[in-house]
Write a structure and sequence with these properties.
The protein is an alpha/beta fold. It has 22 helices and 22 strands. The N terminus is likely disordered.
Length: 532
């Protein structure tokens, strides 16, 4: 849950709504024989929920903050005041296990995670075969080590950030959970359920033993629906087969039929892997766009015409799937910041007088002291590697697209740069990129947060797949025109006919299912943006 300012930001503590604690305890259904652990009990939300059941279970709470621990003890259960990981190392590891573990682990990023506790947590994770890194949030060792502390028939019920579904640092956790639990249930919410914080959460319910096996995702409007429907809401979701991989779990929002057609195409050798077609990497990081990027009027005013290069600085500047030199010049005439200062990797005394004057102005503004600038040999020179044959949208609204860079422009890191492999027809790749299968797949590869955009890192783009058989028959100018007119359904009708129907011989039902996947996943993230 997103940290707020002050003390709670550092300790990662946020009160669990009583209704959520009650729901998880009702699901866990402790008995008089149960041994229950709450590893981060705060002021006792879960302990209070257990007390309401009247069940005389053996309950232990652990809480780092002494004031919160005192509040939690009012529930009548034993509460150890201290660090969970140190307690785990001394009293749980190899010594005892629990039937039920519940809680709302703290959400603390690496840099705010006290080294005293972080070192213990990370060593324990490594001991159990995990590989924590500087992206690891504290909720992850809480979850994974709690799972390790369960009995062979144990249950875990935790409030976890929705990051579990899609971030790379939780990939090991997804693989672990799918391998160690026979049944997983994830309850998600379209509306935020915690007051004052913008982090989406899921309720993770895991059963190590179950007659019914698989994973299901239950999506609710908000907390009211959870309260009104109670445990019965879990039965409305279809059970899916657990995929024991690090793949993102957003795919489990799909039906089994949708998953089947996607899995079939994901292993179809007739469809090209992105890495067979192109390289992808981040665009330029200037370190200070106010200095390095400029409109043409500003370039002329400062007499820098010979010291700049063309660049695309924002994804909104590329409307179609072709960036021609004519279109670039139109952007320049409209006053867009599509020129980047490129005086060369030379000592300042070897530069033009106008370039030296401009660099002096930048230093007077303190731009040379920015982190990215000051670590360079020459702060005013932005290192460059290969020029892009094409661009890929890094943050997509409706869908990602590839843009051919026939203008030879550079690009900032608001887009990714593409270089086609030897012998690959870039026109065909850019034309084939917008098809219903690739767009459906993209929704399971990218990541989306509260803002609703679908974001791709280079590694995620490298996992894209594009049906290329018949792509040489596609008219890229037609696709470019339709893209500019916003007629994406016409693009899909055109590309699907050639790529999916004629050459892959997909049935109408299969293509309909691909449309359903894309529509469902796209609309879900866009609706979450509106709700949040």
């Amino acid at each position: 849950m997103k940290a707020i300012e002050g003390y709670d930001k550092l300790r990662g503590g946020y009160y669990t709504p009583t209704d959520i604690a009650d729901f998880i305890i009702q699901w866990a259904n402790p008995t008089s024989e149960s041994r229950v652990l709450e590893p981060s009990c705060g002021d006792g939300s879960f302990l209070g929920a257990i007390k309401k059941t009247g069940c005389p279970a053996s309950v232990l709470g652990i809480e780092l903050d002494p004031d919160e621990a005192r509040k939690a003890r009012k529930c009548g259960y034993k509460v150890e005041q201290g660090d969970y990981f140190s307690f785990y190392e001394k009293h749980i590891e190899g010594k005892t296990r629990y039937d039920i573990i519940v809680g709302n682990p703290p959400f603390i990023r690496y840099q705010n995670f006290d080294e005293r506790y972080r070192s213990v947590a990370f060593e324990l994770m490594k001991k159990h075969g995990f590989h924590p890194n500087r992206l690891t949030n504290i909720w992850l060792p809480f979850l994974l080590l709690s799972c390790e502390a369960l009995t062979d028939s144990g249950k875990i019920g935790m409030v976890i950030p929705a990051e579990l579904f899609q971030v790379d640092y939780a990939s090991e956790a997804r693989e672990y959970l799918s391998s160690h639990f026979e049944k997983l249930t994830l309850v998600t919410f379209k509306k935020l359920v915690f007051d004052d914080i913008q982090q989406e959460v899921v309720l993770l319910l895991g059963e190590k033993e179950s007659e019914e096996k698989g994973i299901r995702v239950v999506e609710l409007e908000g907390l009211d629906e959870l309260i009104n429907d109670g445990i019965s809401c879990l039965n409305r979701a279809e059970m899916k087969r657990l995929d024991h991989s690090t793949d993102k779990w957003v795919k489990y929002y799909l039906t089994n039929e949708e998953l089947d057609v996607l899995n079939k195409l994901n292993t179809d050798t007739r469809i090209s892997e992105a890495q067979e077609l192109f390289e992808v990497n981040v665009g330029l990081v200037s370190g200070e766009n106010d200095f390095f990027l400029a409109s043409w009027d500003s370039v002329v005013e400062r007499k820098l015409e010979m010291d700049v290069s063309p660049i695309i600085s924002r994804s909104e500047q590329v409307k179609g799937v072709l960036l021609s030199e004519e279109e670039y010049l139109n952007l320049r005439e409209k006053g867009k910041k599509v020129s980047i200062f490129t005086p060369g990797d030379k000592p300042i005394e070897e530069l033009s007088e106008s370039a030296r004057t401009y660099i002096g102005w930048g230093e007077s503004k303190g731009y040379n002291k920015n982190y990215k600038c000051r670590i360079r040999k020459r702060w005013y020179y932005v290192p460059m590697s290969w020029r892009a044959d094409a661009f890929l949208i890094r943050q997509a609204n409706l869908y990602p697209k590839m843009i051919l860079n026939t203008a030879g422009a550079l690009v900032t890191d608001t887009l990714h740069k593409v270089r086609f492999n030897e012998g690959v027809d870039g026109n065909a790749v850019a034309s084939a990129f917008i098809n219903t299968y690739t767009l459906a797949l993209s929704e399971t590869l990218g990541r989306s947060y509260g803002g609703g955009v679908l974001t791709f890192e280079p590694g995620e783009m490298r996992r894209m797949r594009i049906p290329m058989i018949g792509a040489d028959k596609l008219d890229i100018k037609k696709i470019d025109r339709l893209q500019r007119e916003g007629k994406y359904e016409e693009i899909l009708s055109y590309t699907d006919k050639i790529l999916l129907y004629d050459n892959l011989q997909l049935t109408e039902r299969e293509v309909t299912l691909l449309h359903s996947i894309w529509d469902k996943m796209r609309n879900r993230r866009l609706m979450r943006k509106q709700s949040n």
